[in-house]
Q: What sequence folds into this?
């Protein structure tokens, strides 16, 4: 298992403490960016791994959100914002409605033409350098919606991806959809190369159901078959694991 100044692994007792620790680091990085350059650009993820991290951000009284630009990590294609599985809905209700207005918010509209939406987002993102990206790891090892075998080569910031069966099953089992048939088969996702361009990455992974993905990410060779393994190449990545997520690692 790798643990260096550039790729750090933090073990926590439970998902709540994991989220709080990840959130505290995110707050520090956002405030640092604002202090040094008068603005900050961030990427926010969704899903169960981000609940407590977002709560920590919301509770922070000293972030000037008017100087923060937010980008969105991924979204299903064709899913209405009124669906409880919509990541736009998730971010609006769990974050955007809870903090003062940001400088700019760039959500992915999966109801638009996917190619046109990628073009729109790519143009917007080209104007920014991301200071901190909040991400997670899927049960199949995916990073954002880049399922294995992930595209490690494309330089396009946002891409259209096919969701594999394991990914779709995870979304159903987490209770976001009423049936497997309702889970979309395509999404717009930030690409691997774009995620890796962030100055700092904070990756949160709770729960024993992700233990095999964590083991593969850390103990197998870096490979697009284990998409999140690419994080080991990042210059400033912090990986937060609770006890269950770390349970299959050789050295804990």
A:
């Amino acid at each position: 298992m790798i643990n260096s100044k550039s790729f750090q692994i933090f073990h926590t007792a439970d998902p709540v403490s994991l989220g709080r620790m990840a959130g505290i680091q995110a707050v520090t990085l956002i405030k640092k960016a604002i202090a040094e350059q008068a603005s900050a650009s961030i990427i926010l993820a969704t899903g169960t791994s981000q609940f407590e991290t977002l709560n920590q951000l919301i509770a922070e009284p000293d972030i000037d959100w008017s100087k923060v630009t937010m980008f969105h990590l991924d979204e299903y294609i064709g899913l209405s914002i009124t669906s409880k599985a919509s990541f736009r809905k998730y971010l609006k209700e769990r974050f955007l409605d809870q903090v003062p207005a940001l400088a700019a918010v760039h959500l992915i509209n999966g109801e638009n033409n996917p190619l046109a939406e990628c073009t729109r987002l790519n143009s917007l993102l080209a104007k920014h350098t991301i200071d901190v990206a909040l991400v997670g790891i899927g049960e199949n090892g995916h990073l954002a919606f880049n399922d294995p075998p992930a595209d490690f080569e494309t330089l396009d910031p946002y891409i259209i991806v096919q969701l594999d069966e394991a990914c779709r099953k995870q979304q159903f089992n987490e209770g976001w959809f009423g049936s497997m048939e309702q889970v979309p088969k395509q999404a717009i996702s930030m690409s691997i190369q774009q995620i890796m361009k962030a100055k700092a990455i904070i990756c949160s992974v709770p729960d024993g159901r992700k233990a095999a993905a964590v083991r593969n990410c850390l103990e197998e060779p870096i490979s697009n078959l284990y998409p999140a393994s690419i994080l080991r190449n990042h210059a400033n990545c912090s990986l937060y694991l609770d006890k269950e997520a770390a349970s299959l690692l050789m050295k804990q």
Observations:
- The CA atoms of residues 231 and 237 lie 7 Å apart.
